[in-house]
Amino acid sequence: xxxxxxxxxxxxxxxxxxxxxxxxxxxxxxxxxxxxxxxxxxxxxxxxxxxxxxxxxxxxxxxxxxxxxxxxxxxxxxxxxxxxxxxxxxxxxxxxxxxxxxxxxxxxxxxxxxxxxxxxxxxxxxxxxxxxxxxxxxxxxxxxxxxxxxxxxxxxxxxxxxxxxxxxxxxxxxxxxxxxxxxxxxxxxxxxxxxxxxxxxxxxxxxxxxxxxxxxxxxxxxxxxxxxxxxxxxxxxxxxxxxxxxxxxxxxxxxxxxxxxxxxxxxxxxxxxxxxxxxxxxxxxxxxxxxxxxxxxxxxxxxxxxxxxxxxxxxxxxxxxxxxxxxxxxxxxxxxxxxxxxxxxxxxxxxxxxxxxxxxxxxxxxxxxxxxxxxxxxxxxxxxxxxxxxxxxxxxxxxxxxxxxxxxxxxxxxxxx
Length: 417
What we know:
Layout: E1 2-5, E2 15-21, E3 28-29, E4 34-39, E5 44-48, E6 53-58, E7 65-67, E8 71-75, H1 113-122, H2 140-146, H3 196-208, E9 213-221, H4 223-235, H5 245-259, E10 265-268, E11 273-276, E12 282-284, E13 286-288, E14 291-293, E15 296-297, H6 305-320, E16 334-337, E17 357-361, E18 365-371, E19 374-388, H7 394-409, H8 411-416
Helix pairs in contact: 5-6, 5-7
C-alpha cells in the first residue's frame, strides 16, 4: 500500500480544505489524473495523482481541513506494482468498454458543483456530455457548447482582437452568467460550517480590518466614456465584444498607479519597510456561486484597452468555472471592485492586505450634474476609494481620485497614455 500526502502547494501553507473528490474508493486511476479539488487561503486547485493504481481509501470527507503531510489517498499495492493504468487488451476502434464521456469508472459524472448546479437549472443530462476538462471532467464551457443548439439558452463565444500594443493575444471567450440579485443571500436556516471561499474571505477580511482606512467618494461624468465605448463597438463589433466599462476603469487606475507609484506599494510595519512595486498588477473582484475571488491582471499599465477587456473576460470566466490557477490569484498591487454591476452608488470598500489601495466603482445612471454652470441629467459614475492611512495621506488619495476622474471623463487622454 502506498500513500499520497497533502503537499505544500505554495508559500508555506499549512492546511487545505477538501472541496470535492474527483475519484472514489475502488477507482482505477492513471498517473496525473486529478484526484481531489482543494481550497487554500490562496486559491482553489486540483491535485493530480502521483501514480497509477487502485484507490483503496480516501483520507478525508468533503469539507474537512487537511494538514500538510496528512494522508489524502491510499493506493492498493505499491507504487512499483502500479506505475500506471492497468494494461488492457487492445480493442477495435469504436467499441465502448470504458465509462461514457464525463463519467468516472463507477458511473459518477465528473463535474464541479457549479457545473452540476447549472446543468440542473438548464435541464441538461451530464451523462450525455463529453467532458473536455482534465480526466474527462465536464466544464461550464462544455455546457455552453451543448446549449448552442438552443438559442434561448446559448452563450455565444466572443473572439477578441488585441491591439498592436497588447502583451498577449486572447482566445475566444465564453462568459459565464453572473448570479442575479434574487439568488443572493440564500442559505437554509440553521448552523453551517464556515467552509469554502467564504472561510477564506472571512480570514482575509479579518486581516484587512486591522488596516486604518480612509475613504474618498466622488462622481465622474461618464457621457464621453459611454460614447467612446459605443463608437468602438460599432467600428469593431468582434474586437470590442467584451469591452465593458470595467475595461476603462482598469486602464484609468493603472495609469493612476503609474502616475502616483506610492499607491502601488505596500507597508510592513513589523519589518519597518515600505515596498514600491515595479509591476502594476491590478486585482478585480469577481463574484461567483462559491463567493468572491480576486484574480490579478498583470502589467495592467502596459496593456491596451482591448487586451484588458479580453483578460478581464478570461479571468472572470476562469473564476466562475473554477479553473483559476494559484498564480492568477497572487501578486496583486491594488484592487478594483465593480460593485455597481448590481446597481450600487457609493461604498466603503475594504483594502486587500498587504495592498494600500482599493477603488470601487458604482453604477452608471442618469443623475443631476452641473455642466458649464447648468444643472442637467447626465450619466454619472460614482467612485469610492480606500487607502491605508499608515502609508497614504488624504492629499495623495484625493490627487489620485481626481486623476482617475479626469481620465474617465476624457477617454482621449485615457487612451493617449
